[in-house]
Design a protein that fits this description.
single chain, alpha+beta, Glutaredoxin, five-stranded mixed beta sheet, 10 strands
């Protein structure tokens, strides 16, 4: 995390229940975290902005590992404060297979503690801290990763999921 960053919410910890949400995807279909309960693990990653270099790299990396995540009975969901239209354009431009969810008002971002206030060009702005949460089929947080680096992150998350699968 950047030294000048101030988190505006409590950070979640492994072992806690994942905060529930219902958010629209790029096609404006509602996606509910609850719908994956007892069926799929969830990788929930928060990213700052559609179609920026780091966010594009991260989304492509997660998409390229789609079959590996699927083999572990895991769905990957990306969340930003961009709207559904922006998500659709981003997905289509880069051929992404991950589902992108729109949290335009930042409510889910706040519940997961991924918003920070930063000084950008002399103005305080609220931004998303790039973060990832691994949620098991019971709805429990297994890993909470705040302030991640996009390069190689999807592979690291896959490795953590493989460890979770071994522990079952």
């Amino acid at each position: 995390m950047l030294p000048e960053a101030q988190h505006s919410a409590q950070l979640l910890q492994p072992g806690q229940a994942a905060p529930l949400f219902d958010l629209p995807d790029a096609d404006m279909n509602m996606v509910s975290l609850q719908s994956f309960r007892n069926k799929r693990n969830v990788v929930l990653y928060f990213y700052p902005k559609d179609d920026t270099p780091g966010c594009t790299m991260e989304a492509i990396d997660f998409s390229e590992l789609d079959d590996d995540f699927d083999a572990l009975k895991t769905v990957v969901l990306g969340v930003s404060m961009d709207d559904c239209l922006s998500h659709g354009a981003f997905r289509d431009k880069h051929g992404l297979s991950v589902q992108l969810l729109a949290d335009v008002d930042g409510e889910v971002c706040r519940r997961y503690g991924v918003l920070q206030d930063r000084d950008i060009e002399g103005k305080m702005r609220t931004c998303i801290v790039r973060s990832t949460f691994i949620i098991d089929r019971k709805g429990q947080l297994k890993h909470t990763l705040y302030g991640v680096t996009p390069r190689g992150h999807a592979g690291k998350v896959l490795g953590l999921l493989q460890e979770v699968a071994k522990c079952k």
